[in-house]
């Protein structure tokens, strides 16, 4: 999805987004670009959950959380980029806490259709995707980046 389309989907910014008056520092832009590129290859964020193995999803979420922690190491905590990465990392922790509860039965039975574990698993993955979609859109808009491929499917819809 192109930068201009992402901008048209976002509302509520109180400052101009990526204009002549403001250009994000290149180090922050490079970090945002790395984060988006990494997330574009994380199937847990966009592949229909019924096509995924819950255990593989958990492993992917753990890798995402580790990657975000590494990227946060070079940022000041008050920067908007750091706040977005922290929010995404917190969403990973919440999702993991939800699916790892109940003696890991949710992971074990999360792919079984109509089992209570699948409802919990799918809900947790959906919430994770919602949080990531909002923050990825904000990162892309504030740093002038495109979001390629399937990852763009989790960005907020136009007019919401």
Radius of gyration: 16 Å
Q: What class do helices, strands and sheet pairing give?
A: mainly alpha
Q: Which percent range fits the helix content? A: 55-70%
What is the overall shape? Answer: globular
Major beta sheet summary = none
- Give the N-to-C terminal Cα separation: 17 Å
Order of helices and strands: HHHHHH
Average pLDDT metric: 84
Low-confidence stretches: 15-21
Number of strands: 0
Strand content: under 5%
Instruction: Enumerate how many helices there are, as a single number.
Output: 6
Commentary on this structure:
- It is a single chain.
- The chain has 160 residues and is an all-alpha fold.
- The chain is built from six helices and no strands.
Keywords:
about 160 residues; mainly alpha; 6 helices; about 60% helix
Please write out the topology.
Layout: H1 3-9, H2 26-39, H3 54-72, H4 80-99, H5 105-109, H6 116-143
Helix pairs in contact: 2-3, 2-6, 3-4, 4-6
Give the gist of this structure:
With 160 residues, the chain is mainly alpha-helical. Helix content is 58%, strand content 0%.
